[in-house]
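ARCHIVE ENTRY
Sequence with per-residue tokens
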Amino acid sequence: MAGIASLSHIFQIPSEIIEHALTLCHPRDVASFSQTCRKARRLVYGSLDQYLWRQLFLLFPFDDPRQIPSPFQEDGEFNWRKELHRRMEAQLIACRTTSTLEDLLTATETFISVVRSAAPVTCGHERVSSPNLLWVVEVLQSTNMLRSPLLVSGESNQSLARLRAYLALTLDEYDEYDVEGKERLKSIRTRSRCQVYDLRNYHQGNDWGPFNITTRRVDWTHIESIINVVSMNLSDRPYDWPDTRPRYGLEATRAYSAPGTTALATGDWAGIEGHWRRYVCFMDYRDLFAFNYGNRGRGQQDSTYFDAPNFEEAARLIELKLMLLDAQAIPEVYILDRFPDSPYEHYPNLYFTGSSWGIQGNEATVVGSVAMSEGGVVRWRFASIANSQIQWSSEGVQIGGIASAFGVIGAWTGIHHDHGDPVGMQHLSTMHPYTHKLFCIIGPFWLYKVEDDHPIYMQALINN
């Protein structure tokens, strides 16, 4: 009876004041309050303007979705209560040790949605973090959800791989005394190499890139593997170009977080123009051949191949300067397929050209295009041209939002996909011993934008 009397006193207070007091509570406490009586339930859930839930959402805090214009958001008014409930449920799933695999994958979808709805970086606020992203990192770090045995031992899942790709191993760091952490990273590296260097994963049906052969959508397990391979190769080389490293992690996925993209030039919605850096990795063509065809010629790749003490991957830095190009000015030598016309009025297909400088300062011309694809995923396609001939083609995906600092992740290959075109051996054809067909060379790359005054290494070789 005392509790009922206390509630009756509460409702003598104007409802506006009660609502304001509730905005200072945790959403779970507000939900508990709503279960105390009918009046409380009407106050919490009965308002049509969702003022209470909007305030709870923004004061949690989360990024304001009204400040994130996008043609890819669902039509209709934002449901503050439903979305806040969804996020709180995801946090509870991450915390529980009894969550099922289905629950964990549902929570993963929610975390991806929260990452993708992070506010874009704006001019003058480049160092202000996104509340959305801070919350995701805090939940995943405090719960270790991604190390759940159900997720680690389960089959590959696109949503899980996408979230891991966004995180880029930032939650897998370890110190020198962490034996378990070292073994975990070694296992991740082996699995990723098997994915990236398996020639069966590249086909005309997926544009020779990190895409599903059947649906042609992004294959996030492949993207995650590329990120893992390149980032760990760079970790092995702390003294090579130490001040030239890509940004990664959730903050780097925000739209317009790349240098100089908060005030883009008219027409350059993708932030193409400017200076870029690109890391490419590759195996020795003999290792690539042995890994793919060495197991009795049956294509049954042996992951222990990468454990050999003499196995090495190469990593090369390439410096680029890009500028927009009119579609009518694309050189005839550029023979790559063009993307379908964009259905998005504000994101027409863009074309670009520029110069790249690689090992020993060798210069090449770059020509390519950028397109907005289904679901707001930005695709890149470009070729390297030297001596008036295309030598390499590349297919990639922008990680995160438009003009993200994370950059573009993808795969490169020789332009003639039935010929062996390893780096440094463009004129060497590599023959499959059983089919007697030439096979192509594939490697991962990571392309990202830098400041105009970023240190240079490759171009400087020309003047030395």
Notes: Residues 51 and 332 are 59 Å apart (CA to CA). Residues 419-438 have pLDDT under 50 and may be disordered. The first helix runs from residue 2 to 10.
